[in-house]
Each structure stands twice: as structure tokens, then as C-alpha cells.
Design brief:
The chain contains eight helices and no strands. By secondary structure, it is mostly helical. Helix 3 crosses helix 7. The longest helix is centred in the C-terminal third of the chain and has 36 residues. It is elongated and about 55 Å long.
Length: 203
């Protein structure tokens, strides 16, 4: 049974074309919970049936991802840091934990920016967190752009190849996102436990 792109997405693309991909991806990466990844997959799937061009869909998604993440980065740099310093205690972020947050991004910021691109949820806040951590913009831009290219090409290709079955796409992406989230959570837990036990090793 062939299951195509949902009607509401098809209608959006019929009305606005590539702008749907650009602004959907841009808003998600700027911190707005818009289903940018789903929109990219839908645009790529429609290109299989001749409604759009896959190379254009991918290029537009890359542009939206890079611009959106840079907007999110500057939001984090300008407002996020102030918020964390003033209201962080309400979220359990003491000055010591905020320092650990900065140290984490200093050591793993580049990998975090790249990997967050592929994880639903983290993709929305990753750039904001990077900006709030005072990560150097040049370093952020390099790994942000690299991640955008890898993400857009990967998911554009998936959307195109599996365009005949939207249910297959949703299941595949859902399982991949969950697996990545579990791996990241496990890695974060290991690093947290190591940071808690490290002082005891020096005594």
C-alpha cells in the first residue's frame, strides 16, 4: 500500500513551494518548535513525484538551517546567558553548575552542535545553548554549517528514497531519533558521574 505525504503538507507546498522548506527549517533551528525535519522529508518525498527538485530542496534546507541556527545562537548569546545567570537557580542551575555547563561546551561544543542537528528537540535548542555558553561564533559556524549539510543531504535522500511510503519514513525517523537521544543521554550521564567522582579522586 502506498502512503503519500499528508494532505496538509501537500497543500502548503502547492501554495508556497520551496519557501515552506526554508522557513520551516529556519524557524525550527531558531528555537521555534516547528516540524522542520518533517517538512524537509515531505519536500524531498514530493520531489520524487516531480513536484519539486531534490537538489533545490536540499540547498534551501541547508540555507534555512544555517541561518536559523545563527539566529538561535545570537538569541542565546544576547538573552539566554542573562536569563541563566539571573533565573538559572529556578531551574537548578547554580553558579557551579553553570560553570560546568560552560566547561562542557568548551570541550564538547563542536560535537554537540553537529550531533544536535540530528536529534529532535535538541535541534530546537542546540544553537541557543551554544550561544548561551559563549562558544566562539567562528567555531560554531563551522560545525553548524557542516551539520546542516550532512543533515539536509541525509534526510533529503531518505525522504526521496522512501517517498512512496510516508508511514515508513515516520517509523524510520522516529526510531533513529529515539536511538540517538538514548545514546546522548547515556553519554551525558557518564560525564556527569565522572565529574561528581573526580574531586574524590584527588583526596
Amino acid at each position: 500500500m502506498i502512503t503519500l505525504v499528508p494532505a496538509w503538507l501537500t497543500d502548503l507546498f502547492a501554495r508556497y513551494g520551496y519557501f515552506v522548506v526554508f522557513f520551516g527549517v529556519l524557524l525550527e533551528n531558531a528555537g521555534v518548535p516547528v516540524p522542520g525535519e518533517t517538512i524537509l522529508l515531505a519536500g524531498a518525498a514530493l520531489s520524487r513525484f516531480g513536484h519539486l527538485s531534490l537538489p533545490v530542496v536540499v540547498v534551501v534546507a541547508i540555507a534555512g538551517a544555517i541561518l536559523g541556527d545563527n539566529i538561535g545562537f545570537w538569541i542565546g548569546r544576547r538573552g539566554g546567558r542573562v536569563f541563566l545567570e539571573r533565573r538559572g537557580r529556578l531551574l537548578g542551575l547554580t553558579p557551579a553548575r553553570l560553570a560546568q555547563f560552560d566547561a562542557f561546551f568548551a570541550r564538547h561544543g563542536a560535537k554537540t552542535v553537529f550531533i544536535a542537528r540530528f536529534v529532535t528537540g535538541l535541534r530546537v535548542v542546540g544553537a541557543i545553548l551554544a550561544g548561551a555558553s559563549h562558544m566562539p561564533w567562528g567555531r560554531f559556524l563551522l560545525f553548524n554549517a557542516s551539520g546542516a549539510v550532512a543533515w539536509a543531504v541525509t534526510f533529503g535522500t531518505i525522504g526521496y528514497l522512501l517517498g512512496y511510503s510516508w508511514e515508513t519514513i515516520e517509523q524510520w525517523i522516529g526510531h533513529l531519533g529515539l536511538a540517538l537521544l538514548v545514546v546522548i543521554a547515556a553519554a551525558a550521564l557518564v560525564m556527569f558521574l565522572r565529574s561528581r567522582t573526580r574531586p574524590a579522586d584527588h583526596t
